[in-house]
């Protein structure tokens, strides 16, 4: 293509090109200089070193506080005197000692505290006797390790007793005659990371602790990785590779690219007190965010320069192109296509304007020929349009019918898919619930059985001494009481299972007849009265006078009320439990109200489903409220639940009156 020096494009390209090159060059040079000098050489390095040192100091400080508090607990005189007392070896702990342990737990900010005797190995916490330590159990190795250590305390990490990974400070309790036991406390390993949480969040960083075997012991981001080796897939592949190299070469800082190509840093900080290593991953972007103001300034400056460029280009365009085209446009507006087109400005305003004029004249000639052809075909086109409208109307109607059929099919398909999805979800939920139920029942049956076996074994072992020692006889009575309570609990679990099986099979029978609601409430009230005497719970009964007879099965109604009261006792540590009855319209309303922990709103509907519990850590089979709903449906009793978290729950029964129900039903 030949370059024409008098063309409008050439005249406009020179100034625009110069300005564009200047703007781009200035922006690139300024940005590159600032980023290189400020970020890479000064800001990033100092911030990384500060963060790495801060994490190490704060974690060590937290561990130091736990060591101090655990040793202080072991040196407390009341703890030493308790371990020397005969009661400590017989499984008894005074109330004031339990209160002191609870007090130490709160003021030292520990998750758990304990004391253990040397001879009998009775293990106590703030709630009383937990167990008798079995030295044959591998998890009890810490006991002998601490006793044999030349140091006054040892640091251990395990999940014994609590079920969660804890950092333990096990300290010797000594007298002038030697060691009499151990005492100490622990915190969850996850809580070691608490002091650095705010700093990690500020830098959008993640941190985790690995022990000398490469196992992740605490994680600030993903708790599912805890107790797993860091190189078995729990971390991104690139992080694992860089961490392995850093540990092998004893590096404390590594720079790498993540899967998105972004620059990240991997920082390592040793924790000498544990022999562990704190690993921190953080993005480079966390340090470059303060530079957004500079980048905004560069961007705004570019916008200003770009605006000036547009103004300059518009002015040049108007002078070089706009005005000549305007003159030609006026001539074209008054042009008669039947005559040749002539205009003085066509040849003096540039090559492009001349091209436009020549093209217009050529098009005018073509237009004249086209008009002649158009007149010949106009009549034929009119006839074609008449027939085309009929055909279009027929096709439109057919298309509309097809669209309606398709919409109906799509609606049916969506409904079918929704039904299948709901059925699938329900089946999966049922399978999961039954699996959880099997696990829960196994645990609930094993717990009282183990208690019965342990207390029976203790009585059998001390049987000869019990016959001659009144104190041991009292202790044996307490053990027998615990055996009886656990046996009753085990019997209740089995009865719940049998009742639920009958209900599922439709074999549960009901003796429906008029009865006094006050008599049933008195029976339910008396069943729990002895259990709550001496506790911090007020047990109240309110029955309105002269209530009419209700129509129900007395035994099943009593079973429902006992279930409500059992739940209230289980989840109420202090406050009040009330059972009340009053008349409302053509019903008698019975309520069981407690001041316990309450039930979240999103779980209030599901608590009546079989195998369901509010919290997976709750005891029980999860069948009680399911049986309640089944029995109430059979007796035509409406069940309601009002509950607020932290304030308690109200289970309410609306029971029909005897004179409102047919007697032959």
Describe the structure.
With 665 residues, this protein is of the alpha+beta class. Helix content is 54%, strand content 18%. The chain contains 15 helices and 18 strands. The strands form four sheets. The chain has a six-stranded antiparallel sheet with strand order 3-2-1-6-5-4, with helices on both faces. A five-stranded antiparallel sheet has the order 8-7-11-10-9. A five-stranded mixed sheet has the order 13-15-16-18-17. Strand 1 and strand 2 form a beta hairpin. Helix 10 packs across helix 12. The longest helix has 111 residues. The model has no long low-confidence stretch (mean pLDDT 79).
Helix content: 40-55%
Q: Return the structural class.
A: alpha+beta
Largest sheet: 6 strands, antiparallel
Mean pLDDT figure: 79
Uncertain spans, ≥5 residues at pLDDT below 50?
Answer: none
Q: Provide a count of the helices.
A: 15
Distance separating the two termini: 104 Å
Layout: helices, strands, pairs:
Elements: H1 8-74, H2 77-84, H3 86-89, H4 95-107, E1 112-117, E2 122-125, E3 128-132, H5 141-148, E4 153-158, E5 166-175, E6 178-188, H6 197-202, E7 206-210, E8 216-219, H7 237-249, E9 253-257, E10 263-271, E11 276-283, H8 285-288, H9 292-333, H10 351-461, H11 463-466, H12 470-505, E12 513-515, H13 517-532, E13 537-543, E14 550-552, H14 554-571, E15 575-584, E16 587-594, H15 624-634, E17 638-644, E18 648-656
Parallel strand pairs: 13-15
Antiparallel strand pairs: 1-2, 1-6, 2-3, 4-5, 5-6, 7-8, 7-11, 9-10, 10-11, 12-14, 15-16, 16-18, 17-18
């Amino acid at each position: 293509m030949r370059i024409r020096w008098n063309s409008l494009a050439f005249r406009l390209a020179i100034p625009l090109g110069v300005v564009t090159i200047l703007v781009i060059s200035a922006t690139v040079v300024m940005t590159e200089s600032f980023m290189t000098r400020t970020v890479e050489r000064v800001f990033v390095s100092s911030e990384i070193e500060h963060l790495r040192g801060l994490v190490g100091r704060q974690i060590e400080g937290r561990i130091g506080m736990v060591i101090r508090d655990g040793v202080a607990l072991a040196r407390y005189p009341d703890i030493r005197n308790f371990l020397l007392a005969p009661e400590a070896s017989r499984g008894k702990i005074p109330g004031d000692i339990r209160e002191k342990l609870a007090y130490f737990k709160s003021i030292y900010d520990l998750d758990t505290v304990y004391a253990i005797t040397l001879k009998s190995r009775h293990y106590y916490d703030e709630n009383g006797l937990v167990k008798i330590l079995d030295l044959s159990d591998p998890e009890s190795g810490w006991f002998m390790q601490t006793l044999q250590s030349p140091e006054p305390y040892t640091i251990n990490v395990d999940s014994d007793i609590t079920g969660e990974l804890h950092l333990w400070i096990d300290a010797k309790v000594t007298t002038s005659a030697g060691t009499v036991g151990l005492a100490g406390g622990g915190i969850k390993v996850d809580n070691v990371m608490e002091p650095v949480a705010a700093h990690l969040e500020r830098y959008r960083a993640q941190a985790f602790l690995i022990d000398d075997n490469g196992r992740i012991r605490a994680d600030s981001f993903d708790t599912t990785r805890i107790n797993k080796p860091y190189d078995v897939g729990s971390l991104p592949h690139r992080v694992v590779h860089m961490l392995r190299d850093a540990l092998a070469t004893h590096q404390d800082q590594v720079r790498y690219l993540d899967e998105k190509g972004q620059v990240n840093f991997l920082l390592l900080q040793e924790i000498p007190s544990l022999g562990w290593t704190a690993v921190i991953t953080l993005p480079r972007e966390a340090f470059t965010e303060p530079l957004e103001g500079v980048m905004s300034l560069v961007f705004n400056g570019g916008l200003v320069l770009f605006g000036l460029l547009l103004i300059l280009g518009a002015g040049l365009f108007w002078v070089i192109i706009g005005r000549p085209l305007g003159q030609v446009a006026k001539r074209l507006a008054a042009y008669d296509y039947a005559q040749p087109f002539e205009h003085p400005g066509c040849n003096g305003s540039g090559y492009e304007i001349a091209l436009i004029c020549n093209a217009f004249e050529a098009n005018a000639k073509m237009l004249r020929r086209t008009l002649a052809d158009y007149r010949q075909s106009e009549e034929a086109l009119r006839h074609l349009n008449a027939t085309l409208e009929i055909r279009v109307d027929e096709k439109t109607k057919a298309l509309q019918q097809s669209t309606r059929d398709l919409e109906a099919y799509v609606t049916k398909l969506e409904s079918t898919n929704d039904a299948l999805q709901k059925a699938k979800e329900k089946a999966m939920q049922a399978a999961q619930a039954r699996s959880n139920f099997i696990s829960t029942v196994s645990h609930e049956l094993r717990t009282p059985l183990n208690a019965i076996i342990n207390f029976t074994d203790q009585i059998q072992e001390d049987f000869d001494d019990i016959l001659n020692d009144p104190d041991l006889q009292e202790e044996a009575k307490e053990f027998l009481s615990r055996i009886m309570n656990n046996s009753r609990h085990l019997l209740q679990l089995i009865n719940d299972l049998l009742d639920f099986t009958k209900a599922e099979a439709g074999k549960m029978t009901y003796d429906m007849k008029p009865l006094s609601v006050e008599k049933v409430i008195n029976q339910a009230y008396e069943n729990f009265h002895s259990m709550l005497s001496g506790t911090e719970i007020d047990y109240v009964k309110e029955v309105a006078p002269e209530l009419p007879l209700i129509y129900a099965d007395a035994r099943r109604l009593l079973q429902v009320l006992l279930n409500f009261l059992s739940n209230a006792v289980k989840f109420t540590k202090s406050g009040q439990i009330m059972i009340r009855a009053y008349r409302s319209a053509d019903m008698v309303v019975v309520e069981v109200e407690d001041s316990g922990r309450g039930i979240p709103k999103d779980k209030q509907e599901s608590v009546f489903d079989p195998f369901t519990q509010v919290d997976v850590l709750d005891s029980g089979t999860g069948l009680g409220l399911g049986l309640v709903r089944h029995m109430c449906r059979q007796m035509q009793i409406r069940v309601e639940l009002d509950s607020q978290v932290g304030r308690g729950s109200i289970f309410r029964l609306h029971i029909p009156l005897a004179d409102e129900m047919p007697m032959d039903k």
